[in-house]
Amino acid sequence: MLLPTVSALPDAGTFPDILFKDFSQFIQEIFGSDITLSQVLIVLFTLTENTDLLSLHARQQNPKYSGEIHSTYSAWMKCLACGLQERLGTGQNQLFVHQDIAVSDTVVEICKNLDALAKVLCLYPYDSSGKFKGKLKAVSYESIQAV
Question: In terms of Cα–Cα distance, which of 35, 36, 33, 16 is closest to 25?
C-alpha cells in the first residue's frame, strides 16, 4: 500500500507591494469613490488569484510571431470580466466612474479597468516596451496573513 506520491507547489511571488496612497488614488480615479471596500477586495483578489490568466492576456497584447494579432482585451480578460460581473451582480455598476455606460460596453469597461489595475500591481509580465520580463508567479498571501 506504499505508493509513491508526487506533489508540486508552484513558485510563489510576493503580494503586490504598492503604497496605499497610490492604490487608493488609482481606485478612485478608475473605479470612482463610491466603490465599497468589499468590491475593491473582490477585484484585487480576483487579479491576484488569476496570474496564469493575466499571463495569457498579456501574451495576446504582445504578439511575438508574424500572423499573431494584437488583442487589447483578450478573450481571457473578457471571461474574467464576465465572471466578476456575475459575482458582483448589481454592484458591478460601482466598477465605473461614469455610471452611464451602455450595457453592451460593460465587459469592455471592466476589462479596461482590470488591465490597468493589473499593470499598477505589477501583475503584467512585460515592460513598457513590450519586452517579456518573466513568467508571473502565483501570488503568496503569507505576508498579509492575519495574526
Answer: 33
